[in-house]
Amino acid sequence: MPSFLFRLMRVLAVVLFAAGVALWLFVSKEKPQKKEMVNTPPKVLCVPAVSGSADMIVEAFGTVMPRNSVKLAMEIAGRIDYVHPDFREGASIHKDEILLRIDQRTLVLNERNARVLVDQARADIRLLEQEISNLKADAGLARSNLQLAAKELERVRALAENQFASKTSLDKVEQQYLSAKNQLQKITNAQELVPSRMALKKSALASAQAALATASLMLEKSEIKAGFYGFVVAKQVQVGEIC
User: Which residues make beta-bridge pairs with 106?
Assistant: First the structure.
């Protein structure tokens, strides 16, 4: 019994202590103070606007396409014997570089032959011009010979009329006169044919020059040169292929 009372008294003491502490806390607490809400605007930093340019880096994924693209192909047929080492997909090429070339041996021979024909045509014209000069000189001599033969014929005829010259001498002088006249006529005929012959020679020269221009053009077209700086997108030829 006494122990039960002792425990009861201890519990009551604890309860009374807790109630006292709670009462002290309730009495000693401060009343909350009212504070007026002040609407303070946010601070703003003003910076003067200045026009200018700046680099912007944008990271993105996509496909880069060239603005201009050119497809290159041989204009004449032949076997490819040279491809530029840097002529491949993705590689850069420089202006005036030879990218492709076909076998030029036949084309070189054709150009040489055309040059020979041009030189020959020019030589023919020079020979004809020299012949024209010679005909002019021969015509002068033929006229002089004809004049002398005519005078000699008149003299012998006069002598023959007076019987101071024989018939044989007169016939001989007349033959010389006719021969001189015939020679002058041949030279005159040759001079009249000169314009036609010169036209033919000049036509032959023009034809040879056209053939040379064609051969040179074919030789030029036997290779492809880069006309500008750029990059190779695709290549579909190899050395030894026939295009």
Answer: none
Q: What is the pLDDT of residues 15-61, one digit of tens each?
A: 677 777 677 766 666 666 666 666 777 777 777 878 878 787 877 77
Produce one character per residue of 10-47: b if its CB has 16 or more CB atoms within 10 Å, e if not. eeeeeeeeeeeeeeeeeeeeeeeeeeeeeeeeeeeeee
Q: How far apart are CA 152 and CA 74, in angstroms?
A: 78
Question: Which sign does the torsion angle of CA 216, 221, 224, 228 carry?
Answer: positive
pTM score, whole prediction:
0.62
- Separation between Cα atoms, residue 184 and residue 77, nearest integer Å: 58
Q: How many CB atoms lie within 10 A of CB 187?
A: 20
* Helix (H) / strand (E) containing 157: helix 105-161
Is the confidence at residue 176, as pLDDT, over 60? Answer: yes
Contact 169, 160 (CB under 8 A): yes
For the record, the structure tokens of 90 come out as: 């993705």
Q: Could you identify the residue written with the tokens 């041949």?
A: 186
Give pLDDT tens digits for 52-62: 787 878 777 77
Report the first-to-last Cα separation within the chain, whole angstroms.
Answer: 127
Angle between helices 167-220 and 105-161 (to 10 degrees): 170
What is the sign, positive or negative, of the torsion defined by CA atoms of 98, 102, 103, 106? negative
Do the strands 98-102 and 80-83 form a parallel or antiparallel pair, or are they unpaired? antiparallel
